[in-house]
Amino acid sequence: MKITIALAGNPNSGKTTLFNVLTGSHQYIGNWPGVTVEKKEGNLKTNKDIKITDLPGIYSLSPYTLEEVVARNYLLDEHIDVILNIVDGMNLERNLYLTTQLLELGIPTVIAVNMMDLVKKNGYHIDIKALSKKLGCPVIEISALKEKGVEDIVDEVMKVAHQEVTIQHYFSYDIERTIEDIQNQLPSDIVLSQRRFFAIKLFERDQKLQAQLSQKIDIENLIQVIEKQEDDDSESLITNERYQYITSIIDECYKRKNQNQLSISDKIDQIVTNRWLALPIFAFIMWFVYYISVTTIGTMATDFVNESIFGEGFELFGSMIPSIPDFIRSALQMIGVASWLEGLIVDGIVAGVGAVLGFVPQMLVLFFFLAILEGCGYMARVAFIMDRLFRKFGLSGKSFIPMLIGTGCGVPAVMATRTIESSRDRKMTIMTTTFIPCSAKLPIIALISGALFNGASWVAPSAYFIGMAAIVMSGIILKKTKMFAGEVAPFVMELPAYHIPPARNIMRSVWERGSSFIKKAGTIILLSTIFVWFTSYFGFVDGQWRMLEASELNNSLLAMLGRMIAWIFTPLGFGHWQGAVATITGLVAKENVVSTLGILYGFGEVAENGVEYWPMLASTFTIASAYAFLVFNLLCAPCFAAMGAIKREMNSRKWFIFAIGYQTIFAYIMAFLIYQLITFITTLSITFEMLIGVIIMLGLIYLLIRPYPKKMKEDETYDELDFE
Amino acid sequence: MPLTFVGIGEVHKILKVKGQEKSKKFLESLGFVEGAQVTIVSYNQGNIIVNIKESRVAISQEMAHKIMVEGA
């Protein structure tokens, strides 16, 4: 028998953990049609005929957030056999609010009370039998984390599937009568089991549902009669009765200890979010995370990959293991392939892809720590701590988490914006988050800093500073445009109880984020290294098409291409073909910039920071043009993979083009201003371009200090539901 | 009085949630309804963390202003 289950529950109720336990690795992750809310589906590990859909985490079935609308449309339209409602046993009262609404949908429901281990440990008691009787559906105790009680879920689901549902909870007499009146007026195409749900929602003046009816019905008079009688609006009446009903359940079924006592989580929060200690604690934790992932473990692992696996080879149990390039080279020579093919494979593909894979260990260590911080509940506090600051330039505290992830890789950073509910705040975060230097941009910084600034210690921090300044400036500028005007959506966020995150979930998160980067190495970067290799080793010499020697690079296709577009970068100081070509390959993947310049200066394979060609770089660039080159490459549209992520997450062609266009133009202007400014300081002469720079600067200052556009109408101020 | 005037650790009953429909309803689904008890856990630059119905919710100053509680 094929059965479809919808898994519903509050955020932080352990829904994802249960879903992972039930389905194992049989999961398909995508988006709900038309919106950018993540949709997960999977088959039961123990029974492939049972399909489970993980609904977004929601608190209610109201029409006010995207997640709620997505979830309830799915429940109404998709002929679900059973709803599996997971509720947090430590927080029963709030969780049952959603349950009372799910039970009105006319779909057989099984309730799984999660975190029972904690409930018992804390000396609480839940009378499961009484709860089941009160709610009119089977209730099971589980602990998703410890995988306890999970088998019982399947048994109960099989039992209730295709059973009739009986209503257990009725509203007060007058409201019930009105609901019945509305039910009778509903169009006949609404099936019997859903008529009560529709009637209650229409009584609450749910406009989204009203619009879904095949024919309009006029029930305004009916509602107003009750509202006058009870002196409250219909929606509040329903909400209050729901909570009264829940209170009566709690009183009967739930015994807790002294409820005014502060929990451990509260005590931790009093320290961690304390107005004086919050920032120092946060700074220390972040310092520790980056210290470990960038300077110690991460670097050791990265050096091992770069120097041993892709460099000199390494010793294992006393025998010498050759490095991958050496191994492949000798293998190719053994089977006797042509020398150009050997060059393509070893110098082009293996070197290019290897350079990228060198970042992986460092990034995985960083993602590991960030996953722990997210999993234990601290990240939610970080969003809270940073909220006031970010609000000043038009973003919310929730924008900060993607930016932290962005220091590793832009792709998971853009995906991490999904936790931001307001679509406007979210779009703005997507547009600005890749300004933060990701780990692939670090070699560019090392290159410029080493070749032109004698490795001065201020260059790298200045890159992060520029990234942050770009975010702040963009936040303010964009917020003052009509598109983004209006208040930042008010910050309301549930803070999960602190807990030790299960290792399984940490590993899953690290893998999901890390794999997007590894995939990029295998696809886009692979193709681009072939392209760069081909276009730099072939070209016309005296009108003759042929393969080139390394010294003839000037004649290559790539050089031709570079010369065609170099003029674009003349105002930024690097209007030569090497700079132009490196920038273009940087659009494919930022880690290409260093290796491309290496090829362009005649080196097949270079170190991560390109130390071999520093002298040549110093002769083609000035201090001003090198820094402008750095700024442009840091801020302009990110790599293909991140652009792809932006396109997916924006879910709109128009917004995608706007985002990429904005980033590129912003980067161009910044690099231009910086080039002109440094040139002025170092030469003390005034050129025509500098005058243009002054005008642009004034324009920029105007955009930053002009007043906010007039406040829009109240109900437009934060429209979180645009389905464009 | 608004929730922002309440000291850390005090327990208060909610009288009314004001403000726009959307934010009001979202607060209601999180448990901010008439008669519910709230405790302030922490303040940070105006934003607050409250304990309500056994869970912790972080809310911004603007929202906290709109939640009216019984005076001490």
UniProtKB/TrEMBL annotation, chain A:
<dbReference type="InterPro" id="IPR041069">
    <property type="entry name" value="FeoB_Cyto"/>
</dbReference>
<dbReference type="GO" id="GO:0005886">
    <property type="term" value="C:plasma membrane"/>
</dbReference>
<feature type="binding site">
    <location>
        <begin position="54"/>
        <end position="57"/>
    </location>
    <ligand>
        <name>GTP</name>
    </ligand>
</feature>
<dbReference type="InterPro" id="IPR027417">
    <property type="entry name" value="P-loop_NTPase"/>
</dbReference>
<dbReference type="GO" id="GO:0015093">
    <property type="term" value="F:ferrous iron transmembrane transporter activity"/>
</dbReference>
<dbReference type="InterPro" id="IPR030389">
    <property type="entry name" value="G_FEOB_dom"/>
</dbReference>
<keyword id="KW-0408">Iron</keyword>
<feature type="transmembrane region" description="Helical">
    <location>
        <begin position="276"/>
        <end position="294"/>
    </location>
</feature>
<dbReference type="GO" id="GO:0005525">
    <property type="term" value="F:GTP binding"/>
</dbReference>
<dbReference type="Pfam" id="PF07664">
    <property type="entry name" value="FeoB_C"/>
</dbReference>
<feature type="binding site">
    <location>
        <position position="20"/>
    </location>
    <ligand>
        <name>Mg(2+)</name>
    </ligand>
</feature>
<feature type="transmembrane region" description="Helical">
    <location>
        <begin position="581"/>
        <end position="603"/>
    </location>
</feature>
<feature type="binding site">
    <location>
        <position position="24"/>
    </location>
    <ligand>
        <name>Mg(2+)</name>
    </ligand>
</feature>
<keyword id="KW-0997">Cell inner membrane</keyword>
<feature type="transmembrane region" description="Helical">
    <location>
        <begin position="337"/>
        <end position="357"/>
    </location>
</feature>
<feature type="binding site">
    <location>
        <begin position="34"/>
        <end position="38"/>
    </location>
    <ligand>
        <name>GTP</name>
    </ligand>
</feature>
<keyword id="KW-1133">Transmembrane helix</keyword>
<comment type="similarity">
    <text>Belongs to the TRAFAC class TrmE-Era-EngA-EngB-Septin-like GTPase superfamily. FeoB GTPase (TC 9.A.8) family.</text>
</comment>
<dbReference type="InterPro" id="IPR003373">
    <property type="entry name" value="Fe2_transport_prot-B"/>
</dbReference>
<dbReference type="Pfam" id="PF02421">
    <property type="entry name" value="FeoB_N"/>
</dbReference>
<keyword id="KW-0410">Iron transport</keyword>
<feature type="binding site">
    <location>
        <begin position="9"/>
        <end position="16"/>
    </location>
    <ligand>
        <name>GTP</name>
    </ligand>
</feature>
From TrEMBL, chain B:
<dbReference type="InterPro" id="IPR053184">
    <property type="entry name" value="FeoA-like"/>
</dbReference>
<protein>
    <submittedName>
        <fullName>Ferrous iron transport protein A</fullName>
    </submittedName>
</protein>
<dbReference type="InterPro" id="IPR008988">
    <property type="entry name" value="Transcriptional_repressor_C"/>
</dbReference>
<dbReference type="InterPro" id="IPR038157">
    <property type="entry name" value="FeoA_core_dom"/>
</dbReference>
<dbReference type="InterPro" id="IPR007167">
    <property type="entry name" value="Fe-transptr_FeoA-like"/>
</dbReference>
<keyword id="KW-0408">Iron</keyword>
<feature type="domain" description="Ferrous iron transporter FeoA-like">
    <location>
        <begin position="1"/>
        <end position="71"/>
    </location>
</feature>
<dbReference type="GO" id="GO:0046914">
    <property type="term" value="F:transition metal ion binding"/>
</dbReference>
<dbReference type="Pfam" id="PF04023">
    <property type="entry name" value="FeoA"/>
</dbReference>
